[in-house]
Structures are given as structure tokens and as C-alpha cells.
Amino acid sequence: MPETRPPIELRGLSLSELQRMIDERRLPPVDRWNPDRCGQSEMRIARNGTWYHQGAPIRRPAMVRLFSTVLRREADGRHVLVTPVEKLEIEVESTAFRAIEMSSEGEREDRTIAFKLDSGDAVILGPDHPLTLSPSPRLAVRHGLEAELSRPVYYELAEIALAEGHQPPGVWSNGAFFALDGEE
Q1: What is the CA 121 to chain-centroid distance, rounded?
Q2: For the segment 102-140, what is each residue's pLDDT rounded down to a tens digit?
Q3: pLDDT by residue (tens digit) across 91-104?
């Protein structure tokens, strides 16, 4: 069944509207599914975010969005597509997602920052979705999955940190501080 929900667009949305949209999305409970039937999906997510099946790019964005909803990362680091009846490994070259756009409201400790993902989803930076810098700037998404920040998005984040002059350099979002100095 193809994905029918449109991708989330940050432009024109307040972050409270965005949070409502995120809360209303009903993602499958992949964290509770542990089927016995396992195998290989013959799929790969390239470093640039392109999804492949049997070596060919998947060209339908709705299919990629659908697959992204049943993706999780296992405790051993493997990525799997999981349904109630089967679990299939998928090769992920870097991270499952990329953060490709950013939106910010407020200032300093009252700031909230949201990221649009290449999957069409969005995540609000905060205690439940922290930012790490190693091995690259990454945002926790869900079920062990991460989104690597695109270079322009990371530079936009760094501009905020430099403009606000925190020591160490960093940003506040959703009540939490995230240092951008590489010290964790």
C-alpha cells in the first residue's frame, strides 16, 4: 500500500503547528514487532539519501516515505525494514535520513529548532531528539535511526550559535542546550 500522507513542509508553519502534525502522524509500532521470518531486502540507502532496490534507484517518493515508516535500527547497529510478519535487512551507508531544511523560533533558551527530513518527516531538536557531532552532525529521529545534517543546515545552525555567543558555542532548542564545539 503506497504512502498517502504528503511530506511535511516547514515553510509557513509555526513550530506549534508542526508539533501538532508530528503528534498526529501514526507511524507503525515497529519497536514492538519481532517476527521470526528474517532475510535480506536487497535494498540500500546511499550516503546521499537515495534509496535503491536491486541496484536501481527507487524513483517514487511515496514508496520511499512508506519504507521509511517501517525502518528501525537494531541494537547491534543493523538497519531493518520490519512488519508484523517479516524483518529484512537494509544496507545504510551513512544514516537513514538527512536533515535538509531547518526552521527556528524564539531566541537563546526559548528557541525551538525543527528539521525537515529527506523522508518527508520532521523532527524537533530537544531532549527526545538530541544532536550529536560524532562522526558527523546527526539528529536522533526514532527507533535508533539518525538524520545527518546537510552542510547548509549545519552552517545555519552554527550561525545561530555564533550570533548568540554561548560558551561553549551551541544552540538551545526545546529546553535543552546542544554544544557545537565537538565536546560531548
Answers
A1: 7
A2: 999 999 999 999 999 999 999 999 999 999 999 999 999
A3: 999 999 999 999 99
Tens digits of per-residue pLDDT, 135-160? 999 999 999 999 999 999 999 999 99
User: What's the CA gap between 148 and 141, in Å, rounded?
Assistant: 10
Whether this prediction's pTM lies above 0.70 is answered by yes
- Cα dihedral sign, 33-34-37-38: positive
Neighbouring C-beta atoms of residue 44, cutoff 10 Å: 17
Beta-sheet pairing, 37-45 with 51-53: antiparallel
**DSSP for residue 125:** -
Q: Are 113 and 104 in contact (CB under 8 A)?
A: yes
Whether 133 and 119 have beta carbons less than 8 Å apart is answered as: no
Q: Measuring CA to CA, which residue among 41, 111, 35 is closest to residue 81?
A: 41
Q: Which amino acid is at 146?
A: E
* Average pLDDT value over all residues in the chain: 93
Are residues 169 and 179 in contact, defined by beta-carbon separation less than 8 angstroms? yes
Give SS3 for 48.
coil
- Is 180 in contact with 169 (CB distance < 8 Å)? yes
Tell me how far apart the alpha carbons of residues 57 and 27 are, in angstroms, rounded to a whole number: 24
Can you tell me the distance from the alpha carbon of 87 to that of 70, in angstroms, rounded to the nearest whole number? 10
